[in-house]
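General statements about sequence and structure are easier to judge against a single worked case. In the encoding step, the backbone of a single protein was reduced to a row of integers, each denoting a local shape. The record that follows shows the chain in one-letter code together with its fold in token form.
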Amino acid sequence: MVNGYAAKLNIASGECVSGVAEFFAMRYDWAMTQTVPNSRVLIVSGSAEARALARALPGSLVWLPQEERVPQVWPFAMPMPAEPVPALAGMRAVIDACHPCDAATQRSVALAARKAGVPYLRLRRPEWRATRADRWVTLQSEAEAAQVVRRGSRVLLATGHERLARFAALKDCYLYVRKNSAVQRPCVLPNGRYLLGNPPFSVPEEEHLLRRLGIDWIILRNAGGPGGWPKLEAARKRKVRVALLQRPAVDGPDVQTVKEALTWLNRI
């Protein structure tokens, strides 16, 4: 059995590219000699739902679109190939459970499954919904933030550091950027600074942060789920404005729970 292979690869630097085909062949050959009922089911990871689905489907193969912020232990996991179509040959089904806002991976996997003729399903949890007490606005893109956030505002950005350059138009605001690992370089935005910390954060912790920094706006992606909810609950209590980046549209069948995904899998 190949165990923890992907965890040894530096996905961010691109060093994972070599050996991917070899690993897939090793894993496929092993699976064909064992009684593994889910060996031809592919799960694209990037969410808590992907981990739950992998536990429900022991023996399934997992693709990692990018380096995990919090490394997980996967029995059968590998970096997502740059050319996914050939790797889908012989697969029974593809269940894409990447991050709900990862548009690039969604498009790539859906297209590859269609070209390979493999049944495809998108699993993504429900979006967050505003209550009457919330002060939310919806953004179609990061560029729209400059149209709703006033100059001089103090803004908490929780959209991922890889997207920071898209907020360059907020040059007249004070930007605080959540980062969950040690950073050896300054923030890419001249008017921004990193806030280091490892989730999960409680509602009282988030309230304290908003109060201490005098935050006027929070900007984050509408990922749904419990992970980011304390920020939104704290914003409600503090009457802080929230700008939510809308999720990308999804083509093809789409479910919201692991149970629904398993039902779909049993029917194909």
